[in-house]
């Protein structure tokens, strides 16, 4: 029996890792492949033994990572001890480069082959990261079309598998759902720092909007690592807040004429679902100033990066305060043609992200490597 270690450092990675592992079971049933590592509910349902939980790692921004270092180092020590005990035949890293690069070092020192699914956005941050990947990672499984040429130019083995969110969203199955007037979707994120900063900003925007649009309802898709009570404690607006646990999230998204969302994978989910989205991003002032000097791309939203133009408006730092957010939403609510133009742009996004079957293609490519 072979052993595979899967390391998902974020809830979005757990979501996509779970789809990959479920597809991998077609090639490698449980009696032929043991899977252990770090993950959440989705990887657990697909059959992974979670020795560490993804919820234990929930930080964002450079400063936030630094202040969490003692906890991070304890987790890395546990990973090293478990890998020494299990001696897996391969390690599959999923996203979360700030953490997973350290996991790659551990595996490399133990002589364990490392593969990377959903690699770090080296185009956006430090392109020097590719040197690290070339040394420590045997093959990359890419889900973004613009990454492939970059990795090839740097002499790396890369396989483009398409985007697993295409399957998860299943646009053909939800496209006929009609948006409900007066509903605004909220996706404040999965990390505590971003939720603590963005949900009060969304609440402030809702208070301003309620003065002109008293019939608005705000619907929050709750990340599984936050209780409903905690999220409601951050909501001070007079407008109603309806809470959803995220089940059947893509059908739910389609009922929203538009969404306010934290920057991240969620903004590609909403794009593939065809829902106009205001992208918001807040970190500590120091993290933001550092990012200004190291970011090498024009956008932070994956939807905009893939389309190479601004389709989803990006509200960053002070522009993600209540007044600018409310002004944008008011523009959308009073000019429905603007929303319709965005929906038309999102047809192109689905074309660029490729056909369904990404998880199966990734699983097949991985199995060829480790079988």
From TrEMBL:
Q: Which keywords does UniProt give here?
A: Glycosyltransferase, Lipid A biosynthesis, Lipid biosynthesis, Lipid metabolism, Transferase
Q: Does the keyword Cell inner membrane apply?
A: no
An example of a GO molecular function for this protein is: lipid-A-disaccharide synthase activity
GO cellular-component term (any): membrane
Keyword Cell membrane present in the record's keywords: the answer is: no
Q: What is this enzyme's catalytic activity, as reactions?
A: a lipid X + a UDP-2-N,3-O-bis[(3R)-3-hydroxyacyl]-alpha-D-glucosamine = a lipid A disaccharide + UDP + H(+)
What EC number(s) does the entry state?
2.4.1.182
Which terms does the UniProt entry file under GO BP? lipid A biosynthetic process
| Any Pfam family hit | LpxB
**What is this enzyme's class at the first EC digit?**
transferase
Q: What does this protein do?
A: Condensation of UDP-2,3-diacylglucosamine and 2,3-diacylglucosamine-1-phosphate to form lipid A disaccharide, a precursor of lipid A, a phosphorylated glycolipid that anchors the lipopolysaccharide to the outer membrane of the cell.
NCBIfam families from the UniProt entry: lpxB
Q: Kindly provide the name given to this protein in its UniProt entry.
A: Lipid-A-disaccharide synthase
The opening ranks of the lineage are:
Bacteria, Pseudomonadati, Thermodesulfobacteriota, Desulfovibrionia, Desulfovibrionales
